[in-house]
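Task: complex structure prediction.
Instruction: return structure tokens for all chains below.
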Amino acid sequence: MRFLLSCSLLLLAGPVLIAEPAFAETIFVSNEKDNQIAVVDGDSLQIKNKIKVGRRPRGITLSADGTQLYVCVGDDNRIDVLDIASGKIVHTLPSGPDPELFVLSPDGKKLYVANENDNMVTVIDVAERKAIGNIQVGVEPEGMGISPDGRILVNTSETTNMAHFIDTEKHTVVGNVLVDSRPRVARFTDDGKQVWVSSEIGGTVSVIDAAAHKVIKKIRFEVTGVRREAIQAVGIQMTRDGKRAFVALGPANRIAEVDTDSFEVKRYFLVGQRVWNLAFSPDEKRLYTTNGISNDLSVIDLERNKVIKSIPVGGAPWGIVVKP
Amino acid sequence: MILIGYLARQEDPRTPLSFLEPVATDEGLQGARLALADNNMTGAFLKQSYRLVEQTLPQDGDIATGVKALADEGVRFVVADLPADALLAAAGLPEAKSMLLFNARATDDTLRNERCRTNILHTAPSRRMLADALAQYLAWKKWTRWSLLSGRDPGDALYAEAVRRAAKRFGGRIVDEKSWTFDTGNRRTDTGVTTIQSDIPLATQGADYDVLVVADEAGDFGDYLDGRTWYPRPVAGTQGLTATAWSRVNEQWGGTQLQSRFEKLAGRWMTPRDYAAWLAVRSIGEAAARTNAAGFDDLSAYLHSPDFELAGFKGEALSFRAWDGQMRQPILIAGPRMLVSVSPQEGFLHPVTPLDTLGDDAPESKCRLNR
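Output:
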């Protein structure tokens, strides 16, 4: 009863809070607990559809042409390929055991998948639908980032606590950088010069010089009234102009905004509980976040710097992508 | 090459009352072996390597022989899978003066207080940490009236003592105390069920309570209680709802990976003893990776420093308390088949870290280490 009431209040509040003109984008969220992809209309901010996929969907990413969504379904040891127009799984890709996160090469031809249980990165040829290589990395591979030119792949290993730099032509490790405990997400800056790596247990973001394989800055976070242990850095996104970076802080229930020149934290946004991942709207006027414990999606207005809405999306929302 | 010793004595295999649990003969050791593999995997990227020197003495074997053998091999980090007295005997030997021992077994509170030693770090939680973790959860549930049922082993009395202290700290009230006086004997007897069914109501009669807290560390009778008690009340403590450092039911915080790696290696579930040994060996690996050093003094200094942090699949960083060498860590509240909660509970506040609401905090510690 209480749940119904709060839902209807949100629905009532929706149109009043959203002053922006129409958004055409579609937001996809993987619900880890529900085994579903929630499809949210960026205009009305209403759920349009929920699509059943394999068990424990986490990492999701769009195909290069934007017509398909790749979904890591860890408990089924595969990647489901979802046709967006029909809302149906059209085929699967062989990912190796327990895929959690992956990254698509800039040309859209290869998927690099982290296999948590096997200390391996699997390379998949998307068109051929087969694995074409494995790269041995540290214990519990997790985050995956790729350089804008597609030549360097960065994988993080959660128990080894490293960012492994991998040559994508030779499939060999060319550098290893030690970062704080339980590294999660790795993200290249658009100029390819830096890699930002978040550490969940360490609660920091290491900024790595991509050429020198050296940590040049460690960004720390401090939120008044939140205990240090609850600050767990995970998702990272940066605006295309390279000026604003956003970091999800997990059980601190905050998104930190970091100035990419000074590496100073400019502000914190209070979002839902245990925020793991985040994605921009195509015009970068909004930031969407997945909150795994409060089971919702927060919408941040980046022009007014305000959290404007939360949308219940399903059980344990994890990954998020936005299709223009 | 970083050498890590593993010191244990042969013991009679532990035979759990439940047939669902295997009889394990390699508890602890398999945890150390897994962490060694994890260390070497990471070490491969840093040009560091580790070797485990396993030293298992006969049941009546002299501890000094084991420590000397390790010292002769040049081992200075030693994971001790030993009860309290044997651990102290090892730590007091001249060879151990230049060693760092990791207590991966003994939960005795005196080891963190009156009998603490500068050359011991504890990766096993203390009884007080376990009892405090359970008490916080029971307080959160508002199950404040406890009946305490203790076994006859010396460890059971010490566990009961920790429970009494936890009751005082977190608002529990012990309304009744009883000792287990029945003989349980072998787990496999044809008429066992009939006898137990009539014994348990007798043993648990008395003042009414919210929860029956059982102190039975060896698992001699505790698993018989649930479903047979005089009052229809839950069982908690060493059996039933259990406060523990590790349990197979935990797959939170990436625990799935540790559980599956362990099962692949050992062919059985990871126990708290395996977990404590894993923590010890991983701590050394973490110190070596962070300092990029292999020397004993560098690693030991880092392990004792406030910079040291270890990820232990329990949602936050683990580190060693400066005042008694105890590893601070969340404690799982585990049911027999599901994870129920994890302590410290929300709302039990501490000026430094809520983890220090479990066990002996600096002001109350009787350990006076001259570090």
